[in-house]
Amino acid sequence: MPAPGHQGVPVTAAVVSLYMWTMGILGIGLVLIAGIVMSYLSPPRSWDPWFKRMLRVWFRILFIRIVTEGTEKIRKDRTYVFMSNHVSLFDVPVLAACIPVFVRGVEADRQFKWPVYGFAVKRFGNIPIDRSSVHASISSIRRAVRKLREGTSIVIMPEGHRTLDGRMRPFKKLPFHLVRESGCDLVPVGLSGLFQLKAKQSWLIRPTRIKVKFGNPVPAGEIREMSVEAVSERTRDAIRSLIERP
């Protein structure tokens, strides 16, 4: 799938994108700052429903319509590892707004150094993953497993990087060591429409419809009986089947 180009951008598309960037940065900045303030007043789990609503309001301001499917498969009394394809800058807020249980993200450690965002995700309890060495990676996995065993679901994008052409990249092995060690069910999630919204190599943002589709949870008992490679392949096939092509 070719990415939107940079040449000959229509004036309307440029104006719309400038609006989206301006309102997007201002809006998400306000939401994150509000979340930081709330994190000093009460635990994130207590205000998570409010935070999800604020993210959905932000998307409506940007004329982005989000449709979810399969949320009835997610039990509120269970802890899960959610895995999705990685498409756009908008993936994280989309998942944060749509996953119907309290969830924290596993993100590259460099993102924790970004202004405002990095401080916010630290306060929210997200988990940095350091791929610089095997020892650092194992430490990140253990921290994520502890959080899962404490009853907090985790979301991770096993590709590690955003797609360049709309197709999924190869999966990293680390997330599947995590899910096998955690003893939690794995929920595949397919994100559709995000490449059309904002491709990695284009500055244009196009208001569009986004689909978030949750697959059937893979039981922890089945995962324990499978190799890391088999879990990865099964998850990849499941996510691919959930993605809707334009």
Mean pLDDT: 92
Unreliable runs: 1-6
Helical stretch tally: 9
What CATH architecture would you give?
3-Layer(aba) Sandwich
Number of strands: 7
- The backbone outline, from C-alpha atoms, is globular
* Number of domains as seen in the coordinates: 1
- Percentage beta strand: 15-25%
Query: Order of SSEs, N→C?
Result: HHEEHEHEHEHEHEHH
Sheet with most strands: strand arrangement: 1-7-6-2-5-3-4
What fold name stands as the CATH topology? Glycerol-3-phosphate (1)-acyltransferase
CATH top level label? Alpha Beta
Helix share, percent: 40-55%
Give the biggest sheet: 7 strands, mixed
Short overview:
The protein is of the alpha/beta class and about 250 residues long.
